[in-house]
Amino acid sequence: MAATSSRRSFLTAPLSAPAKVNYRPLGTTGMKVTTVGFGCMITSDATVIERALDMGINYFDTARVYGRGNNERMVGTALKGRRKSVYLSSKTISPTRQAALDDLNTSLRELETDYLDIWYLHAKNQPQAITDDLMEAQRIAKKAGKIRFTGISNHSGHKQVLPAVIAAKHFDVLLTSYHFAMEPGTADLIRAVREAGIGVVAMKVMAGGYRSASYYPTADDLRAKLQREGAMLAALKWVIRDSHVDTTVPSMVDADQLVENFQAMSTPFSDADARALAAQLEFIRPLHCRTCGQCSGSCPQGLPVSDMLRYLSYADGYGQFPVGREKFAALPEAVRAVRCGDCRECTVQCPNGVRVAERLARAQELFA
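Now predict its structure.
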């Protein structure tokens, strides 16, 4: 991670200052996107997006559900007058054709645009969630000129979902979680998608973040943090070095994060980066769910363990408590009412060392 002074000088440098911007083709769409795009989910300051535009980033991703609709409105304001010079995507989580099409119309209105470059069916983490009804919604939208390309996103279930995406022969772009802490075989799945002509956009590239000061309560922990300095930039570079990934959409809340992430396009992955990620991996091992689907046992209370741990990462890892709380609040009431402390022992065990019961209890403590 660059020193604060250097980041400030980079931020205030003239826009003509040398800075390398790299592009890759997005599947077979014909679009050439910057290898670092902009994930808008937790951004609330439109000037950060405007600065990204000035720096040359050309792909921006939002969703109908982000910020209960406020995120799309903010993104639309930031892109006003410059829409034709960028690629813009949004998403729907609705389960039916008509509801999805209604979401699309709302997205277009809030974003102040006539079309989306990519419209994603969002968070499809099981093959059965990829329905003919929803794909028909995309075909209708494409025929009407409201979207240019069809997309689908997933957070987990890669071994089942990614082959299903290929088999559907429908999608132009896949938006998927991909980071250094995932199972090694994930890279092979990503390659298969890209070789099928489907564009690949990587999200959740920071593996949960976990750079919040609240996680460094002791001197020893602080020294460990300093040893990992640069892990977030290294994590982004780790993903970009995979040639089967066309672009990434790291979340950025302020100018410092924007400037740091921008460097990933011009700085190669190094041995120092590898060491930083090795230290970060050990640090997050008990905290971060890799969404590998290899848990032993299942929760008798029906808790969606992987989802709840992801919601917790928004608060503990990225410092975005409102986002985690909003996600948790959308769970069924019966799920929100469960307290892990009432169980004598947890029946869910993580092969990677996540302290499942402890993390679920923390999510309940924070959000319930």
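The longest strand covers residues 147-154.
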